[in-house]
Specification:
The complex is a heterodimer of chains A (114) and B (116). Chain A has 114 residues and is mainly β. Helix content of chain A is 0%, strand content 52%. Chain A has no helices and eleven strands. Chain A starts with a strand and ends with a strand. With 116 residues, chain B is mainly β. Helices cover 0% and strands 47% of the residues of chain B. In chain B, the strands form two sheets. In chain B, strands 2, 4, 5, 8, 9 and 10 form a six-stranded mixed beta sheet that branches. A four-stranded antiparallel beta sheet of chain B has the order 1-3-7-6, with no helix packed on it. Classes of the chains: A mainly beta (114), B mainly beta (116).
């Protein structure tokens, strides 16, 4: 059972454009929603994260929008740059005793054309 | 400061052999996780250790997989009698509870395992 569904699988955006990646989850116990960025040959790096008590979080060019009722959240990358070309993973988890097991989406390969 | 380190970075082994993968978490992090990243399955949770609590092994795919964490720090993931389907990148992550940084998991670079 795939608990976090991510789309699209791949995305091509022109430099300066807005990149949008969407995720939907099923488990209403999830209370933490991070996005990770991964470059080839590297481990995932935390980009930005949100908790369900807010509907939006912005850090620089990256924004998470969260819709609790629809059980959906998305990543927006404003003014996309070639250096943003990477694979992006959404994830979700439920806090258990101070730690959590992340459930990941399948990933989106983002390409920013110069 | 130093991040999560993993060794070896690459491991090629023959089918049926045992392998050990090592993870050094960030100092002071109480929780340690192992994930597996493969083409067909994406990123999947394997096991986590939290402080002195019993580990959560619910993600281990078979009894050929085991892990231990010594002294609340270094962890070793062992795969016995490796199979070709075990080929993947094995990722380790650690986290701590501390104010605004609680629950963030920091990943190591991974160990790429190839079973021939």
């Amino acid at each position: 059972q795939q608990q976090v569904k991510q789309s699209p699988q791949s995305l091509i955006v022109q430099k300066g454009g807005i990149s949008i990646i969407n995720c939907a989850y099923e488990n209403t116990a999830f209370d933490y929603f991070p996005w990770y960025q991964q470059f080839p040959g590297k481990g995932p790096a935390l980009l930005i994260a949100i908790r369900p008590d807010v509907s939006e979080k912005k850090e620089g060019r990256f924004t998470i929008s969260f819709n609790k009722s629809a059980k959906q959240f998305s990543l927006h990358i404003m003014d996309s740059q070639p250096g943003d070309s990477a694979t992006y993973f959404c994830a979700a988890s439920s806090t258990i005793q101070g730690a959590q097991k992340l459930v990941f989406g399948q990933g989106t390969r983002l390409t920013i054309n110069p | 400061g130093a991040g999560v380190s993993q060794s070896p970075s690459n491991k090629v082994t023959e089918k049926g052999k045992d392998v050990e993968l090592r993870c050094d978490p960030i100092s002071g992090h109480t929780a340690l996780y192992w994930y597996r990243q493969s083409l067909g399955q994406g990123l999947e949770f394997l096991i986590y250790f939290q402080g002195n609590s019993a580990p959560d092994k619910s993600g281990l795919p078979s009894d050929r997989f085991s892990a231990e964490r010594t002294g609340g720090s270094v962890s070793t993931l062992t795969i016995q009698r490796t199979q070709q389907e075990d080929s993947a990148v094995y990722l380790c992550a650690s986290s701590r509870q501390s104010g605004g940084l609680r629950y963030e998991q920091y990943f190591g670079p991974g160990t790429r395992l190839t079973v021939t």
